[in-house]
Amino acid sequence: MDIANAAVELLLRNLERHPEKAAYLCGEQRISYRELGVECRRFALLLRKRGIAPGERVLLVLPDTFAFPVAFLGCLLAGVTAVAASAALREEDFVHILEDSGARLLVTHPDLAAPIAAAGDRADAVFCDARGSFAYRHDSDTGFDPHRPAADDFAFMLYSSGSTGKPKGIPHRHRDLILPCDLAGSAILGITANDVIFSASKFSFAYGLINSLAFPLFFGATAIIHPGKPDPASVLGIISERRPTIFFTVPTIYSQLILSCTANHLDVPMRVCYSAGEALPSAIFEEWRRLTGLEIVDGIGSTEMTYVYISNRPGRARPGSTGQPVPGYALRLVDDDGADVPSGVDGNLLVKGPTMTPCYWNLPDRSAETLLPDGFCRTGDVFVERDGFYFHRGRSDDMIKAGAHWVSPLPVEEALRSHPAVAECAVAAVTAGALVKPGAFVILAPGIVRTPGLMRELRKHLLERIPEYMCPARFTFVDDLPRTATGKIQRFRLRDTGETGGKTEG
Hints:
This protein is an alpha/beta fold. The protein folds into 3 domains: 1-228, Rossmann fold (3-Layer(aba) Sandwich), CATH 3.40.50.980; 230-396, ANL, N-terminal domain (Rossmann fold), CATH 3.40.50; 399-505, ANL, C-terminal domain (GMP Synthetase, Chain A, domain 3), CATH 3.30.300.30. It has helices spanning 6-17, 33-49, 67-77, 91-101, 113-119, 175-186, 206-219, 232-242, 251-260, 282-292, 364-370, 409-417, 454-463, and strands spanning 22-26, 29-32, 57-61, 81-84, 105-108, 124-127, 154-159, 169-173, 196-199, 222-224, 246-249, 272-275, 296-301, 308-311, 324-325, 330-334, 347-352, 377-386, 389-395, 400-402, 405-407, 422-432, 435-444, 474-477, 503-505. It is globular.
């Protein structure tokens, strides 16, 4: 696919087809495709008037309002690399991102203290208002010609959440924003201009960026954006009021929606419910289907690859599996020596595809370690393939060496979640009697009281479903689990600790 400026590609087609159609809905506000195009060009002109040259970086730390697509696409129109980061990061993370990226300008909301404090004298700042609008010194977008980038020019850069260290910059080209629309949006999800899209994942993450920006604008659909936290009440309220046809979120949110439901049926209007970010437990799949009559279509991707590269298909989702390769992507499962493993054997997942980042920003050693010379990327995930479907076994650094056995946390967690007393759980390596064993960290379901016999009951439940060597040697009852900003459980923070403040039974 020959793609020049991705912003031109996304905006122009809609300005020609349906300029007055709503591009975005946010609360009671709407912005049409015509209005969006005008605002994006005005923002691009603002950057030029402030002397931000093509190829330079601008840091976007914004709530999910109209401000994000305006600023992001405005950067691309101007040939400026849009650096998007989550507003949930710490001040020291923003300091690192500003210094690492060399961003000359911060675009943010005046209520976000951490990025503003980090900017200090490191970068100038531009602020949006509560409506997601910017104050321009110019009223017109006339006289603006979009930048024509080279094929490998960077369009945007996303910073990881920093779950295992400092946030890492992961740059992408213009085509990386467009290709997922064909490879996943069309081929798998069948998105059309008639769809209304709601993603509970934020713009600043790759998953949310493609869901809420690339997909709706590429197909001419309408997207719903929500500036606040995706708590069950607000998510269900938006679904009830706005009636989206496609819903994107992560397993954690599906679990919270299920737990918040007090009825035997949940009336939802979607034709597709999608999940990514981490493996979807089959118990959540089955309970969502029971409540709604709808399956959850699960997939997995990464910021390095821009979007999903393994996915189930609507109407053919296999519970417990991540699905089959997305068109355009090649997969390998290899052992620790790099040799391919046969079907049915766990292996480290390598993926190759047209949307892979060319490098980690300012991290040549990490680039060489992860992005291999043959075009494959080390994902850090362990999978097993059966009958053409891929099943997630966990992160390679989450695997537990218990005696002579390697234990994946995922099947243990799956078995534990099937007990009615368990709302959520995580399994990580703990030390028991000087030996490394699986340990379970358990959030109890509402109304369940911790009793001395509860651990014995959970252990008996597990031994009926998994081998004894996989059974946790220790149970810790907690009120919460450590997570990244995208909702992924940080199992490394649970290893040999009870830091979440729970009660341990041996």
